[in-house]
Write a structure and sequence with these properties.
By secondary structure, the protein is of the alpha+beta class. It contains 3 helices and 6 strands, in the order ββαααββββ. InterPro entries: HotDog_dom_sf (IPR029069), MC_hydratase (IPR048274), MCH/BMMD (IPR052342).
C-alpha cells in the first residue's frame, strides 16, 4: 500500500513529510520561464543584487509547488481531487540553494456527501527551510478515496508473457 486512505486520517495527526528538496538555479529558471514570469528578481542576478535581499529570490509559485509536492506522499497520494487552498502565506524568502521540507496537521475530516467512496481531509501545511524558518503555510482540503473504493485498484497491467519466474 502506498499513501493513506480517508479512514487513516485523524484530526490532530501531524505528518513530517519524509523528503526534502534543495532548489537549484536551473529549477528556478526553468519554472520561471515555463510560467512566463517576467519579474527579474527570479532570473537576473545583476538586477536582484540591487533589490533588498541582494540576490535572486526563488519564484514563489515554484516554492509553493515543491512544498505541496513534498506533502503528497502522506496527504494526497490517494486523492481524487484537490478542493481548495486558503490562507496561503509567504512568510520568509526562499533562495537558490535552500532545502525545503513540508509538514502538515490534519484539522478536519468528514464523509463526502456526493461520493460515498471518498471523504474530505482538511489540513494546515507549512514549508520549512533547512534552518527551520517557516517560509510558507496554507490550509488545504482534498478529497481522498476510502480504502474500499474500486477506482484506484487493479491498475497494474497483466503481462502478456505470463507471470514472472525466477
Amino acid at each position: 500500500m502506498v499513501g493513506l486512505y480517508f479512514e487513516d486520517f485523524t484530526v490532530g495527526d501531524v505528518y513530517q513529510h519524509p523528503l526534502g528538496r534543495t532548489l537549484s538555479e536551473a529549477d528556478n529558471t526553468w519554472f520561471t520561464l515555463l510560467t512566463m514570469n517576467t519579474n527579474q528578481n527570479h532570473f537576473n542576478a545583476h538586477f536582484a543584487a540591487k533589490a533588498p535581499y541582494g540576490r535572486i529570490i526563488v519564484n514563489s509559485g515554484f516554492s509553493v509547488a515543491v512544498v505541496l509536492g513534498l506533502s503528497v506522499s502522506d496527504m494526497s497520494q490517494n486523492a481524487l481531487m484537490n478542493l481548495g487552498w486558503d490562507e496561503i502565506r509567504l512568510t520568509h524568502p526562499v533562495f537558490i540553494g535552500d532545502t525545503l521540507y513540508s509538514e502538515s496537521i490534519v484539522t478536519e475530516t468528514r464523509e463526502s456527501k456526493s461520493r460515498p467512496y471518498a471523504g474530505i481531509v482538511s489540513c494546515r501545511t507549512r514549508g520549512l527551510n533547512q534552518d527551520g524558518d517557516e517560509v510558507m503555510s496554507w490550509r488545504r482540503s482534498v478529497m481522498v478515496y476510502k480504502r474500499d473504493a474500486p477506482h484506484d485498484k487493479g491498475l497494474f497491467p497483466v503481462a502478456k508473457t505470463g507471470p514472472m519466474t525466477p
